[in-house]
Amino acid sequence: MSVIFVGHRGVAGTHPENTMISIQAAKQLGMKWVEVDVQPTKDNVLVVCHDHTVNRCSNGKGRVDELTLKELQSLDFGSWKSGEFQGEPIITLEALLEFCGANDMSINLEVKVDSHDPAYVVSLLKTELEKSAFNKSNLIISSFSNNVMRELHQAELGIRLGVLAKRVNRKTLATILDVNAFSCHLDYKWLTANHINILRELDVEIWCYTVNNPKSFKHLDSVDAVFTDFPTRFEGATNLETSTQP
After folding, report:
1. Could you tell me the pTM of the whole model?
2. Domains, the chain, ranges and CATH?
């Protein structure tokens, strides 16, 4: 089986995560898939950011949903990683879809919620996707929130869904069945041969996060895809292209 390698938050090992320059780096490595996180701003614009605050990955402070897009765009989301990325801005989902669509890249969108209303966040996502020309067949949407997954299923977006979980258990399997999931995205450290067999019987693809050392994952050749911060570490064992063409 040919394993898909997915750039985790772009190429998060070497670039500021979830920024356009990180997505561009994945493209330059010849990667076809990237994974990013989306959540709403105070003024209800979906932006690409993992944490619910900007404290870790910018020069600002505060919750994403308590800042407007304009306020977020005034922050530096690059310097925390390295001075060479100074001034790198936050990106909107709209901009991400435009770039990846123009460059024939596929996306795993992880919907982030904590205090958010899952139904409302899914409605924002549905609106954004309906106005975008991005090819829906190049998308997988996932979330750790079972409520988000069920809202996504009920929204009938025509997009594949991936159930996110730390490990396979009854709750995970129930959600897979409830939303007719295409894939299950799991922490590779907890994956067992028995889990693989169970998911194969359900005809569900197995995607594992976040694998940064090829030697650390004994089931690497038995899954469909892995997320990685360091895709170049897998060059010797995969057909990952290394073209540097933009």
Report:
1. 0.94
2. 4-234 (3.20.20.190)
Q: What tens digit of pLDDT does each residue of 4-23 get?
A: 999 999 999 999 999 999 99
User: Could you read off the pLDDT of 156-177 as tens digits, one per residue?
Assistant: 999 999 999 999 999 999 999 9
d(CA 93, CA 102): 14
Rounded to an integer, the average pLDDT of 25-50 is 96
Q: Give the C-alpha separation, 186 to 77, whole Å.
A: 28
